[in-house]
Amino acid sequence: MGLFDGKKGLILGVANKDSIAIAIAKVIMDEGGECGFTHLPDRPDDDRKKNRRRVEKAIDGHPKAKFLIPLNVQSDENIAEVMSQTKEELGSIDFVLHSIAFADRADLQKDTIQTSREGFKMAMDISAYSLLAVAREAEGIMNDGGSILAMTYFGGEKIVPGYNVMGICKAALEAAVRYAAHDLGPRGIRVNTLSAGPLKTLASSAAGAKDMLKFYMHVSPLARNITHDEVGKAGAFLLSDMSSAITAETMHVDAGYNAMGSPGRMLEILKES
Description:
This protein is an alpha/beta fold. It has helices spanning about 20-30, 50-60, 75-90, 105-110, 115-140, 165-185, 210-220, 230-240, 265-270; strands at about 10, 35-40, 65-70, 95-100, 140-150, 190-195, 250-255. It has a single domain (about 10-270), classed as NAD(P)-binding Rossmann-like Domain (Rossmann fold), CATH 3.40.50.
């Protein structure tokens, strides 16, 4: 018997086969859970439908992947339409994975105080407010005792140069998760965030993850980087009944990096150089 046998849910934010969201979804589906997926809408002039095709490739025909539809989280109407279609396809659901964030690359490459007003509003709308909008619509089709999980990063807690405006958005997202957890708690619906260490993903490429991978390997207590599989298992845990008393929390899956108060073993390397 699988951990997610009889469970159904929605996976938001798969970009391609390297996305953290697909790592989590694959664990869920391999454990018996049925998943609906969304993808970033393709431009009307994009005949190749690149966004949809990337997600189709990531799902790779898994029998537990039940549908794939576009979602624009800046549209309340589209969010409602997605939830309505999810209800038609799956009935009531047990979990939602929110793995959505975006900031203009031009803003990410500037000092944070140089972030444009419009860029800030867009990044905050997509990366933080969308969690509240999704939770509001999901509540109507979610079973009591369900679970919502959002993805965050340590840059929302501490200064990570290069993460810049996205760090502000992640701080807002984590606060939104805590307040949503309070709102939905009476129904037993839990809301948490998972803070993963750096991985090679499409999103991380814009935030200098390549250099961070080297740094984490030397500084983290486990003296290594994490894997997609490890994050996938942790995310599935938070979306499962195994975490039934955990809500309003941020779980770090970063080989212990977040607990460090100094560069640790990196100091020895610096001395040698």
